[in-house]
Amino acid sequence: MNLTGAMELKAEKKAERTILSHCYYEGALKLTRPVYLDEHAPSVYMIHVGGGYVDGDVYTTKIHAAEEAEVSVTTQSHTKVYKTPKEPVVQKTSIHMEENSLVEYMPDPLIAYEKARFVQETDVYMEEGARLIYSDMMTPGWAEDGRAFSYDWIRSRLKIYRNGRLVVFDHLFLEPDESISGLMQMEGYSHAGMLMVIHEKVDEAFIESVCDLLEKMNLEARFGISELPVKGFMLRILAQNTKTLEELIYKAHDEIRSRLLQKDIIRWRKY
Amino acid sequence: MTDRLLPLLQFSDSNFPSGAFSHSFGLETYIQEEVIKDKQTFSEALFIYLEKQLVYVDGLACRLAWETLEAENETGFFQLDEVLFASCLSKETRLGNQRIGERMARLCYDLYPSFILEKYIKEMKAKRYYGHSALVFAAVAFHLGIDKQTAVKTYLFSTLNSLVQNAVRGIPLGQTDGQKLLVEIQTEIEKSTDEIMKLSEEDLAAVSPGLEVAQMQHERLHVRIFMS
């Protein structure tokens, strides 16, 4: 299999600070130098040097957080997937998290254009005390005929393992057909987003308070939040635009940072 | 060997005490919102529930479980249990599935004891695995020598049948309308069974996002008649 782009990074804790001890990229993927928006933890931005993902592209990303290390990984802009007449675009990500590490993986939204096919496989391996914050947004690109769903399909499979057991599996498969915008599917919305947190301190009271906060924002969206099979929660959102998804996800993320991590809120976006 | 028709009739009887009687699997959220309010609206919901949730999750799991038993692949059977539990991200529905799975396993084991069910029950007791009706059904059907197609089709029918009975109480709906729905959906059950046979393991547990949100929201409904 020919890789269009690959990137690897390893974060290690040195004294009070996490540093990137290994950083590698090739092909169409690049990484920025880490910025310390949080004085102890680096944020890195993944950059796609081409205009977007095209037919048959294959990308791999490997993130390794050593014991106690804290790292945030995001993207510099949206990931665009164009039409894939022959082969779907494949993106494989693996995240290894040693004891008590923290990984925030919150990329910008994916935009799937007309006739795009995209599959994303993400495997996360977590050791004791590891904390994960993960978000994802799947959005439709503009199409000439104005259809909300012009892509062929998008598949995202996120698997989280702990002690060799699969503990959380989020499998989102959006294939536009006559029922996609309706009941039980997208409920009249076009954009899907999620935020997942795995952290020992998540309990029903915390989930309830996040839910109340999001409800009070009174945005045009449909969302649900529930406790995971492990300590943590899943927030799923259906909305009409990226802005609404982001507002809800960032609000919940702020609560997670301030109340669970006891850290300041950070803003990765420059716009 | 008992006649194969009779156990199938027994399993698909809506009085079969699997515990599904107390669960709406998120449908009650739509009933409270009055999105589901009569035969027409419930019919649309039932068809989508079959074509998406049951095809990609419960039905496909039932088929794959039957195949693991045929291949004497016990590990594969228990992996399916893990996938079903890990992929149900609404806590209430996840625990509901688990409770129904446990109860059905014990009941089916009393009725038609088999080695695999005995083991499944032990694994649940030891909290190594969780329990799911799709797997229990596959196990008992395989043990009774029921072919894969028939097993899946019966599982789909019995699941829909209990949803219809719940809708009759919950919406409410007339008994005759409920039975009419079970006639109208027959062709779709055939189609869905064929579809399930064509899917691959990679398709398993694809979520119906709106339904999942409804299941999560159900956890916060103030007055409700169903546990999920």
Automatic annotation (TrEMBL), chain A:
Cellular compartments annotated: Cytoplasm
Protein name: Urease accessory protein UreD
Family: Belongs to the UreD family.
Main subcellular localisation: cytoplasm
Function: Required for maturation of urease via the functional incorporation of the urease nickel metallocenter.
UniProt entry tagged with the keyword Endoplasmic reticulum: no
InterPro entries: UreD
GO molecular function: nickel cation binding
From TrEMBL, chain B:
Entries under PANTHER family matching the protein: UREASE ACCESSORY PROTEIN F (PTHR33620)
Record family assignment: Belongs to the UreF family.
Name of this chain's protein: Urease accessory protein UreF
Localization: Cytoplasm
A GO-annotated cellular component: cytoplasm
Major subcellular location class: cytoplasm
Molecular function terms from GO: nickel cation binding
Function: Required for maturation of urease via the functional incorporation of the urease nickel metallocenter.
Gene3D superfamilies linked to this entry: Urease accessory protein UreF
Family annotation (InterPro entries): UreF, UreF_sf
Keyword Nucleotide-binding found: no
Species of provenance: Alkalicoccus saliphilus
Superkingdom field: Bacteria
Alphabetic keyword roster: Chaperone, Cytoplasm, Nickel insertion
Subunit description: UreD, UreF and UreG form a complex that acts as a GTP-hydrolysis-dependent molecular chaperone, activating the urease apoprotein by helping to assemble the nickel containing metallocenter of UreC. The UreE protein probably delivers the nickel.
Short name of one Pfam family: UreF
